[in-house]
Design brief:
By secondary structure, the chain is an alpha/beta fold. The protein has one domain: Rossmann fold (3-Layer(aba) Sandwich). The chain has 9 helices and 10 strands. Helix 5 crosses helix 7. The relative contact order is 0.18. The N terminus is likely disordered.
Length: 281
């Protein structure tokens, strides 16, 4: 996930801050997102020996996943504006013994890497840009003819997250998240709009896939993940008047979410992710 880009006051606000706890939340998020991103990379044709540019690397999960596809003969360069989170990404790559995965501190719209790439990938980055099509158009200059584009974003719509049977607290949490997204100026249809964004960027006609993880209420990770996400959003929620700290009760939120969902025997569909991939002509 990308950090707030520098130098554009029209960009949506970055909702979740830059704390160590937020970095750990990004890593936890991969448990739900990586299987969906893996299928996107497979569909797109990411393969051994490719050079890959990862936009908005955050803690490095997407870059590390891309490294599995390109193997030791390929390379991955991740870009992010936050040098702090990139320290974590570099440490994780080093711990995995991946000397072919590197990271660059910079704005994805203005970077000037000293190479061209066979593929560009991103997850949860374009949603924080005022003009994502223009950003991808700028990146296009770093791609070789025939390069692969594989991008993935959520939809922030009422139906994008589902609990069945429904529980009041989970519905309230999703409502708070959506209100924070709206307050930040993020496009709630960003996932569906990837078709237009990729096309307008001149990156070809994308193929698309919509997926979501589904888990039972016994999966503690989903409740803990929701709590950590609301914790990162808490300053925005409180300062905007969306919800008060007492109303949210962040320190016991995961426990209460789990109790309600277990009592109802619920299954949770984690928020939709839309993937788009294309070949640059």
């Amino acid at each position: 996930m990308v950090r707030a880009p520098r130098g554009d006051r029209d960009d949506p606000a970055y909702l979740v801050g830059h704390s160590d706890a937020e970095t750990q939340r990004l890593i936890r998020q991969a448990a739900f997102r990586d299987p969906l991103t893996r299928r996107l990379f497979t569909d797109a044709g990411l393969s051994e020996g490719m050079s890959v540019l990862d936009l908005g690397s955050g803690a490095g999960d997407v870059a590390l996943l891309a490294a599995e596809f390109v193997g030791p003969t390929g390379t991955v360069l991740g870009v992010d504006t936050d040098p702090g989170v990139l320290r974590t990404a570099r440490a994780r790559a080093a711990a995995a013994g991946l000397d072919n995965v590197t990271f660059l501190d910079g704005d994805l719209r203005t970077i000037e890497p000293d190479q061209t790439f066979d593929a560009v990938v991103e997850r949860l980055a374009l949603m924080y840009l005022a003009d994502p099509a223009a950003a991808l158009r700028a990146v296009r200059t770093h791609l070789r003819p025939g390069a692969i584009v594989a991008v993935q974003e959520p939809n922030w719509l009422p139906e994008s997250f589902t609990v069945h049977p429904p529980t009041p607290l989970w519905q309230q949490v999703w409502s708070w998240m959506r209100a924070a997204v709206q307050h930040a100026g993020i496009d709630p249809h960003i996932g569906f709009n990837l078709h237009r964004i990729v096309t307008e960027a001149g990156l070809g006609e994308p193929q698309m896939r919509l997926e979501a993880a589904a888990v039972s209420a016994t999966n503690s990770d989903v409740h803990d993940y929701a709590e950590s996400t609301l914790r990162s959003m808490l300053p925005v929620l409180v300062e905007s008047g969306i919800a008060g700290e007492d109303e949210i009760g962040i320190d016991t939120l995961a426990q209460r979410l789990r109790a309600e969902a277990l009592a109802a025997g619920s299954v949770l569909k984690v928020s939709d992710m839309v993937g788009a991939h294309a070949v640059v002509r």
